[in-house]
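Supplementary Methods, section 5.1.

A reviewer requested that the exact input to the structure prediction be made available. We therefore reproduce it here, unchanged from the version used in the analyses.
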Amino acid sequence: MSGRPKEGYRNKAGEKIPGCTTIVGRFKDSGALIFWAWNCGKEGKDIRTEKDQAADAGSCCHEMIDCHLHNRVFQTAKWPPMAIAKAEHAFLGYLDWVQQSNLSVEASEISLVSEQYQFGGTFDLIAQNRMRCVLDYKTSNGLYTDMLVQVAGGYSLLWNEHFPDKPLQGIDLLRISKPKRPDDPISFEHRHWSAELFPIAQRCFILMRELFDIDKRLKGLL
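The structure derived from this sequence is encoded token-by-token as follows.
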């Protein structure tokens, strides 16, 4: 994935502004990550080694999906054969979902800046099946609130500001599991939310955006 612009996000005045992921990440619940790190330490395991080994298959499947959606060639040489073999099972589940949903891509890997709320964001794609939805895919052990705030909140605000004549009608989240051990199987999951989610997630993001600046100001006073 191309990700955010290398130079970061800037408004029309040329001022640097935070990204959607940075804003949401500032208030992300890190309890699960802290517990996992503590458990690794308790068992005498190296955190970096465990993270790299366990993430292989999930991250591999994530890249398979990314390449498929953006018409890129998947580079098999980057991944261990075992990771590819395990990832393919979940990837087949994804392909079944694509076929059943008749998915088509309207726009992909767009970087936008909100002048109204002063933040930027780069999201995976806007997809069309029976309706126009913002779609995002995560490698994660679960679905969390911050994902909804990011996608249904920040990303939808960006899209609405730039494309008010093309309203979004929902969001689709694709989750690829992140196994705890190298020999754990991985899974693919699809979740859809209707447009009723947007005002809730948008309100939450707008409050986070305001608090992000207040928090930064207070840190400068220390």
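The domain at 31-220 is CATH 3.90.320 (Lambda Exonuclease; Chain A). These observations are discussed further in the main text.
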